[in-house]
Design goal:
Length: about 400
């Protein structure tokens, strides 16, 4: 199943232009690398939270009624652990969104889940509720790596979860992995990659572990260990080798790299994630969720990160925002160019400059240097990073911005 979405003219990628992100913050335990807005809870206020996110949606639609009629092309339930939410409440929320907004035909509806057996027992219910893309947070098959990451599942649970997802009839099953973990070897990463493709997924996302405090939303146990010198990460050359072996194994099994960290079968890239990479708009609901809208003027907002504060604020009839930032041409330009350069298809960098009023000529010499030194290539009007360039994406963006 390939989900419907328009093609972004600057990148050539099919991507939602308007999506909705719903954050479910609750987890049974917090992973030591996680900087997301999550809360550890044994008793999750499932019904109260469902009511709250729909109340927040009502408030946001009242503030900008034009959002009601704009075709919604993707919905993503992330977390936290959304697979802790009973399917009846997921169905209630999806039905509430459908009753309030305009849904585009063939929209992609994703849910993040854990491979644990209790979560997998709910997969059929999520499929019946309307979820058509399931993303499993696997991270690794290796017992040592899973322990280092604080994960509760094992390899057998992953295989059982994939089987349950197939039985439930999900058209797309995706899995997420992490490399560059303390104690991890290149051989283990290759073994993970080979075991992943053997399960025949439609999509694989594989990210380098982020531990440095300056790039995290908040401190984590691992970032504190790193600061104290208690944590030893793999050498940079090994991390590059890990990324390379992942690309090779995935590519050899028909999963094409379409973004720095993402591989998919033809036509099955994430339309919702592509929205972020191509400058689309996204409404966000729930604890700690971040949204970006272009009307009434471009802005980004972040919701309260504490579940109780969020619930109380929404129930008092207020928008649960902790911050709101106006986005001018320079901010939009920087995001559009840097995100576009994450894509294998590249981005029409001159058109991005022109769209946001940024000068082209001062950057042309730098672009020529990138191409001459093998860090980038041209696809017609689009500039795309080579694998060598993708390894230093942040440094390249800093030079172009």
């Amino acid at each position: 199943m390939s989900f419907a979405a328009p093609t972004d003219e600057l990148t050539g990628m099919q991507a939602a232009r308007f999506g909705l992100y719903l954050h479910f913050p609750y987890c049974l335990a917090k992973c030591p690398y996680c900087d997301f807005a999550v809360a550890v809870a044994r008793q999750v206020p499932e019904e109260r939270y469902a009511n709250a996110v729909l109340t927040e949606l009502d408030a946001r639609l009242a503030a900008d009624p034009s959002l009601r009629v704009k075709p919604l092309e993707s919905i993503f339930l992330g977390g936290g652990t959304p697979s802790l939410w009973h399917p009846r409440y997921v169905a209630r929320v999806l039905e509430g969104i459908a009753a309030r907004m305009s849904l585009a035909p063939g929209l992609e509806i994703s849910l993040e889940g854990n491979p644990e057996r209790a979560d997998a027992e709910r997969f059929a219910g999520y499929r019946a509720a309307g979820i058509n893309r399931l993303s499993l947070g696997v991270q690794s098959f290796q017992p040592q790596t899973l322990k280092a990451l604080g994960r509760a599942h094992d390899a057998a649970m992953v295989e059982g979860a994939v089987a349950a997802a197939r039985q439930a009839g999900f058209p797309v099953v995706a899995m997420d992995f992490i490399y560059g973990v303390h104690g991890q070897t290149v051989a283990q990463v290759e073994a993970d990659a080979r075991r992943a493709v053997a399960l025949d997924p439609e999509h694989l996302s594989t990210y380098a572990l982020t531990v440095e405090r300056e790039v995290l939303a908040e401190s984590t146990p691992l970032s504190k260990q790193l600061e104290r010198g208690e944590l030893s990460l793999p050498e940079d050359d090994d991390v590059v080798a890990m990324a390379r072996v992942v690309r090779d194994v995935y590519g050899a099994h028909g999963l094409t790299r379409y973004e720095i960290s993402n591989h998919a079968r033809e036509g099955l890239g994430s339309r919702h994630n592509a929205l972020y990479w191509t400058g689309g708009e996204y409404l966000a609901l729930g604890v700690g969720a971040t949204g970006m809208l272009l009307s009434p003027s471009p802005h980004r907002y972040v919701n309260l990160r504490g579940p109780e504060a969020y619930l109380r604020t929404v129930e008092e009839g207020k928008l649960p925002e902790s911050s709101r930032e106006d986005l001018g041409p320079e901010e939009l330009f920087a995001e559009r160019l840097s995100m576009g350069l994450r894509l294998v298809s590249g981005v029409d960098w001159e058109a991005v400059c022109e769209r946001y009023g940024q000068p082209v000529e001062p950057r042309r010499a730098e672009v020529e240097r990138l191409v001459a030194h093998g860090f980038a290539i041209r696809h017609g009007r689009r500039l795309a990073l080579t694998e060598r360039g993708a390894d230093v994406h942040s440094a390249i963006c800093a030079r172009l911005l």
